């Protein structure tokens, strides 16, 4: 039977999923918009670093949830 920590894990997985989808959408839209507007390359690198940071954070959250579920035997 799922306990309170299971609900927290599900919420964290849901949040990480939203962050991943939003980061990729922002990455693609920002790259297309930056190219269309002719923005300097430094803004493209800044966008890349922000999106990579979001993806690394989501990966860390998913790893932590996965380890917690492995420890609990879920």
How do the helices and strands follow one another from N- to C-terminus?
HH
Mean pLDDT: 90
Which structural category fits the helices and strands?
mainly alpha
Distance between the termini: 10 Å
What would your notes on this structure say?
There is one protein chain. By secondary structure, the protein is mainly α. The protein has one domain. It has 2 helices and no strands. The longest helix has 34 residues, at 4-37. It is elongated and about 50 Å long. The protein starts with a helix and ends with a helix. The relative contact order is 0.17. The model has no long low-confidence stretch (mean pLDDT 90). It comes from Halovulum marinum. The chain crosses the membrane at residues 15-37, 43-66.
Tell me briefly what this model is.
This protein has helices spanning 4-37, 41-72.
Which terms would index this structure?
74 residues; mainly alpha; 0% strand; DUF5337 domain-containing protein; transmembrane helix
SSE layout and pairings?
Layout: H1 4-37, H2 41-72
Helix pairs in contact: 1-2
Transmembrane segments: 15-37, 43-66
Keywords: Membrane, Transmembrane, Transmembrane helix
Pfam families: DUF5337
